[in-house]
Design a protein that fits this description.
The complex is a heterodimer.
Chain A (H helix, E strand, L loop, with lengths): L4 E3 L2 E4 L5 E6 L6 E7 L5 E8 L2 E4 L8 E4 L6 E5 L8 E8 L11 E2 L3 E5 L1
Parallel strand pairs in A: 2-11
Antiparallel strand pairs in A: 1-3, 3-8, 4-5, 4-9, 5-6, 7-8, 9-10, 9-11
Chain B lengths: L8 E5 L4 E6 L8 E7 L6 E6 L4 E2 L4 E4 L5 E6 L8 E8 L12 E6 L1
Parallel strand pairs in B: 1-9
Antiparallel strand pairs in B: 2-7, 3-4, 3-8, 5-6, 6-7, 8-9
The chains are: A mainly beta, B mainly beta.
Chain lengths: 117, 110
């Protein structure tokens, strides 16, 4: 049973370019979460998506960042016009279908390390 | 969100039990206690979670006090590969955001 997959594992972009990070959830999981880990800091929640829906994007910067989880294919985190401050590790997690009041543990992928030069 | 307090670092001898404490005195009734670990910048690895009762799986045991204000993660026979940062996180129920603090750096020594 494959775990959460992320690609690419490492991504180098020049300032002003676009970065596209992909995440395939675990089989049977329909909920995807993106987190960012800046150097020497803890992971910070960015966005929570279900298929074709953004549930909560309260942790996403208002500009240049967007996320989607289409009906078919992986979830995509897109960063337009990258700046040096976007250099970080971006982790995707997935969980099974949630019901109110329940606990569903999140399983994380290996991350994409973005370096902006 | 309920906050957690963990020691910054701990040491453990290989083969011995590692007991990692966590305080979460503001936990609410429907919140769970989760434990994750992160080995050298890899993706966080889920270990175990619990609500009220003690829990055990193939990786670890979780002991939650009766008042739920603190818990202890137990790795029964620590190995060198258990060296990692361990995060105690309170969440679940309607709160799906995992808030990662600084965690405890556990170093297992030969």
């Amino acid at each position: 049973n494959a775990g959460v997959m992320q690609n690419p594992r490492h991504l180098v972009r020049r300032r002003g370019q676009e970065a596209r990070l992909r995440c395939s959830p675990m089989k049977g999981h329909s909920h995807v979460y993106w987190y960012r880990q800046l150097p020497e800091e803890g992971l910070k929640f960015m966005v929570y998506l279900q298929k074709e829906n953004i549930i909560d994007e309260s942790g996403m910067p208002k500009e240049r960042f967007s996320a989607e989880f289409p009906k078919e294919g992986p979830s995509i985190l897109r960063i337009q016009q990258v700046v040096r401050g976007d250099s970080a590790a971006y982790f995707c997690a997935s969980s099974a279908r949630r019901t109110s009041g329940s606990s569903y543990e999140q399983y994380f992928g290996p991350g994409t390390r973005l370096t902006v030069t | 969100d309920a906050k957690t307090t963990q020691p910054t670092s701990m040491d453990c001898a290989e083969g011995r039990a590692a007991n990692l404490p966590c305080n979460h005195s503001t936990i609410s009734g429907n919140e769970y206690v989760y434990w994750y670990r992160q080995i050298h910048s890899q993706g966080p690895q889920y270990i175990i979670h619990g609500l009220k009762n003690n829990e055990t799986n193939e990786m670890a045991s979780l002991i939650i006090t009766e008042d739920r204000k603190s818990s202890t993660l137990i790795l029964p026979h620590a190995t060198l590969r258990d060296t990692a940062v361990y995060y105690c996180i309170v969440g679940g129920g309607s709160n799906y955001k995992l808030t990662f603090g600084k965690g405890t750096l556990l170093t297992v020594n030969p």
